[in-house]
Amino acid sequence: MMDAITAFASVFIALIAVAATIWQARRSARLAEDALALPVAAETFREFRSQTFREHARRLLTVPGEELNQASGFHELSPEFQESAYHICYYFEYIGVLTAHGLVRKEVVIGTMSTQIMEVWEKMAPCIIAERQFRRENLPQDAGVEFLPHYENLVRQIAVLGGRSAGMRIRKGLDGWCADGSARRARTE
User: Fold this and answer.
1) 29 and 122 co-located in one domain
2) What pTM was estimated for this model as a whole?
3) 10 Å Cβ neighbour count for 155?
4) Bridge-partner residues for 183, per DSSP?
5) Residue 67 is part of which domain span?
6) What is the per-residue pLDDT across 22-35, written as a single tens digit (0 to 9) for each?
7) In a domain, 86, yes or no
């Protein structure tokens, strides 16, 4: 009887040790992922705040609506608008890939970029849809004809979280933010 109790206790202790090891391994993996995500996030925000990005975004948002509505894809945009369209839309596609695969948390991206992501999408949607149609009609059937699917997924996630107010909603949930989504000033005493 004593041998059975000892065996049971040994098995129980071994199971606890295995569970602790699994928990520690998962925690270490999560910390490693977070450590790798930090440089990616830093580079992403550096580009988002760059003069080049702002110039392309400004140019893109000033494209006359009729030019976008009449274009049957990006290839029909004027060269300066086309360059800006690819630069900005592919950037947001890249951001969508990073968030879809968990390399950057979507709350971080949406909390800081949701307004610009939505502005560009609303402006470019007719041209993006036209580009998809152009690719379906002109590329071989076995070629990938999706165009900016991760960007569109990111837009859908922002819409679910409240559209243009999604960033403010996320910020409200953070410590140190006021009810209106603005940062609280630190007390100086």
Assistant:
1) no
2) 0.75
3) 21
4) 177
5) 50-172
6) 878 777 766 666 66
7) yes
